Amino acid sequence: MNVPNSTISTILRKLDFDDLHDWAGAKIVNRGKNYVKHVDQLSHTEDNTLVAWVTGNDRYATSVRIGADGDFDEFCTCPYSWGPCKHAVAVILAAAEHLKVKRMIPSLDEGSDLGQTLRGDIEENEWLNGEREENNESGRTPSRTEAQTKLEETLESKSYDELLHLLIELSTRFPKVKQYIVESEQLASGHVDKLVRALRSEIRDRTAEAAWYNHWRGEGSLPDYSHVEDRLRALAEQGYVNAVLQLGEELWIKGNQQIEQSDDEGETAMAISGCLETVIAALPGSSLSPSEQLLW
């Protein structure tokens, strides 16, 4: 079978941009238009699914299953997880162009790299999720590497004065080390007001950055949320959950605004999502009632 079946053909011929906008949003659709020419090995399966490679920051395996009522169920190996991605939109538009010029869309070769990647990615996700659950149930912690063991032995062999001198030197040469030491002391002493104010300021600065990446030129600007996530987790572990929720609420509002304006492959959304997972994990320890926690 070298052409899509009647369901795919019928739906694609009736499709217009309003339908795509309703599904993915105008911004994602506009970005998807720019990726149509980067759709490769477009093919289809017997269950009304379009599949293809789409080149972005990397090469992504993308599939879009078309329902009989015209709805879409997409999957993509790109990091974007906030709804349909531009690669999925590009696959639909590429298929529509094929039909318009009466070009054949072949059936997917299940043994091809594309077929194996799409099938293997689902199996790998299932395996990883199962292993995470098994590790959590067993309570095992990752074993120390040989390098970590050697470093620990080296530090244990040094005197108090030598360790103090080493920390001072590291703090002088690496500002982030100094920041970590100061913030750790603030957490340990319970004087976290300055830390919370600094973290709120950092969230405002990070969410105000332009988030973009041009994969063709290999250049861009992606905000780094690693310190925000680390400090949110540290605050939660020390019991300052209400402060974590306040910061998380601000990150949610301003972060969504940043994501709406971003032009990357979902890296910014994933970074903010990682921070918010830490906030949600801390929620049960807050002073909110169960019903308020649910609403939050």
TrEMBL record:
The keyword Metal-binding applies. GO terms for molecular function: zinc ion binding. InterPro entries: Znf_SWIM (IPR007527). Keywords: Metal-binding, Zinc, Zinc-finger. Residues 62-96 form the SWIM-type domain. The keyword Metal-binding applies. It comes from the Bacteria. Residues 124-150 are annotated as: Disordered. This is SWIM-type domain-containing protein. It comes from Nitrococcus mobilis Nb-231.
